[in-house]
Amino acid sequence: MTGGDRQSALVNADSFWFTYTLSSIAAIIAETVTYPLDLTKTRLQIQGEKHVGGHNVAGQKRGMVKTIVGIGSEEGAIKLFQGLTPALYRHLLYTGCRISFYEIIREKILKKNSDGSFPVWKSSLGGLTAGAMGQFIASPTDLVKVQMQMEGRRRLEGKPPR
Questions:
Q1: Cα–Cα distance between 156 and 134 in angstroms, integer?
Q2: Mean pLDDT (whole number) for 66-84
Q3: Are residues 32 and 88 in contact, defined by beta-carbon separation less than 8 angstroms?
Q4: Where are the Solcar repeats (predicted)?
């Protein structure tokens, strides 16, 4: 690789789209692996709500392990990934935007000190701003994800899908 080729590769590695793509791919892999735990968390959060007849679908509160095993046995193992698509879209938007926005805010707006350091207050402000912007963009996908996560429960209760 010549000097010019190396310089071109470095410029591309620092580009918005490179950062966006790489951070989004990493987040999508992580979300896919941990998604059954997210579904379980959502189900656990709402298990205490009253239902028709005043009891839960299983008739008792479940812990994490019983909830995940119950979803697999009562609804089918594939249902452990119900709602994964909007979760992946969320990470495609949220993580890609958040990481990329942070880089832009850090380099173009807040800028490093003359000695090359980047103070904690600037990092905090940049992270807060980038996270808020990413969450604002990705919020609708969270709503869709939770609705899809609850679909299996509605069916077990005999309710029509939404």
A1: 35
A2: 90
A3: yes
A4: 14-108
Task: Please check whether residue 66 lies inside any domain of the structure.
Answer: no
Measured CA to CA, the distance from residue 61 to residue 81 in angstroms comes to 22
Contact 88, 15 (CB under 8 A): no
Q: Is the residue at 122 inside a domain?
A: yes
Q: Is the dihedral of CA 90, 95, 97, 101 positive or negative?
A: positive
CB 93 within 8 A of CB 139: no
Query: Using CB atoms within 10 A of its CB, is residue 114 exposed (0-12), middle (13-18) or buried (19+)?
Result: exposed
Q: How many CB atoms lie within 10 A of CB 58?
A: 13
Structural domain range at position 26: 3-35+77-155
Kindly tell me if the per-residue pLDDT of 115 is higher than 80: yes
| CA-closest candidate to residue 94, choices 30, 10, 5 | 30
Task: For residue 120, tell me if it sits in a domain.
Answer: yes
Q: DSSP letter at 81?
A: G
